Amino acid sequence: MPQLPPELFILGPDYVEEVNVCVDRSGAVSKVTTITSTHTRLNRLVCDTVKDWKFEPMTINDEAVPFCYRQRFVFKATFTPPPYPN
Fold it and tell me: Which band of pLDDT confidence, cut at 50, 70 and 90, is reported for residue 60?
């Protein structure tokens, strides 16, 4: 799972990225398209990360087939500020 960039911790509590992932017969990601994005930088991070994923090939009747599916990522920005000096 991609890590939330530090500068996004202050912009909002949650970010949702949803992508359509297509996988070829060998199990390599062949295409990633954005369905929902809450931040451009996070979207690029998600797409770049997913492109490097590798899957077990899906088979039907013992034959590898390409497939696509939706993947949803929910990033919860939790930040605890340092304590104020006494």
Answer: very high
Report yes or no: 6 and 57 within 8 Å, Cβ to Cβ.
no
Angle subtended at Cα 75 by Cα 70 and Cα 79, rounded to the nearest 5 degrees: 180
Nearest in space to 2 (alpha carbons), one of 85, 75, 65, 86 = 75
Asked if 75 contacts 17 with a C-beta cutoff of 8 angstroms, the reply is: yes
Sole residue written with tokens 């202050």: 10
Q: Do 13 and 37 contact (CB within 8 A), yes or no?
A: no
Q: What is the pLDDT of residues 1-53, one digit of tens each?
A: 666 666 666 655 678 899 999 999 999 999 999 999 988 888 889 999 999 99
Q: CB neighbours (10 Å) of residue 20?
A: 14
